């Protein structure tokens, strides 16, 4: 479960992207969906976010301080595509989930190689400090994809309860390899995850898990494996997500409502230029 938002690799993350839910067939017509307003505090970035879910589509939009849209991340589970929209630049990129995963792994590997090359001429002590910083920031990104290991995820329900954004919620702790990774406060009253087909979402989660294992920004943001995510999806929606992995930061819902969402909401705006993800990331 996710969060931050160029194209700003830190913003390319799916908030809680592996939570699974009930099946809803996309009819092509506008229908009742969910629109969730939330605030991100602490960590490297913060600000307002809007998450919209409807009939196998999910859009996460970051809102700039002036109230204008900044960046959107759109997942279409029917097409198994990921789209990123940069509103100030009036551009967007679209790729299949598999293409996106391959691209991100390539970007992380290239970045690690460039950093290692830059360290060659440093004094030994300074190089050692820089290497430790690289490992903490990029995890296993320098490894080959087949060598990356996914963390063992454990989900524990606690007895803590709270009312958040008007919804009663229960705290769950997410442990990665036995260590506390994040805490999730789940509200039964928000049934937004029922908008997403669990089998299709599991395919997305499997690809994103590969990135998480290899040092992607998805790591440390309440990102769950399929089994744990499926269990939580039946419990409700995370109205508060607290990163306990060291990066800090909290994402908390301030408003959630079920209402009609036009299908065009999940498409790039007309007139925006299409680019590749590497072009948007300045590669």
What can you tell me about this protein's structure?
It is a single chain. The chain has a twelve-stranded mixed β-sheet. The chain contains five helices and twelve strands. With 283 residues, it is of the alpha+beta class.
Keywords:
283 residues; alpha+beta; outer membrane lipoprotein receptor (LolB), chain A; 24% helix
Q: What's the total number of strands?
A: 12
Q: Which CATH-level-2 architecture? A: Clam
CATH fold category name: outer membrane lipoprotein receptor (LolB), chain A
- What's the story with the biggest beta sheet? 12 strands, mixed
| Radius of gyration (Å) | 19 Å
Query: CA-to-CA gap between the ends?
Result: 27 Å
Helix-strand string: EEEEEEHHEEEHHEEEH
Coarse shape: globular
Strand order of the largest sheet: 7-8-9-10-11-1-2-3-4-5-6-12
Structural class comes to alpha+beta
Tally of DSSP helical segments:
5
List the helices and strands and how they pair.
Elements: E1 31-41, E2 47-54, E3 57-63, E4 69-76, E5 81-86, E6 91-96, H1 97-119, H2 124-138, E7 153-164, E8 167-176, E9 179-187, H3 198-213, H4 226-235, E10 237-243, E11 250-261, E12 273-275, H5 277-280
Parallel strand pairs: 6-12
Antiparallel strand pairs: 1-2, 1-11, 2-3, 3-4, 4-5, 5-6, 7-8, 8-9, 9-10, 10-11
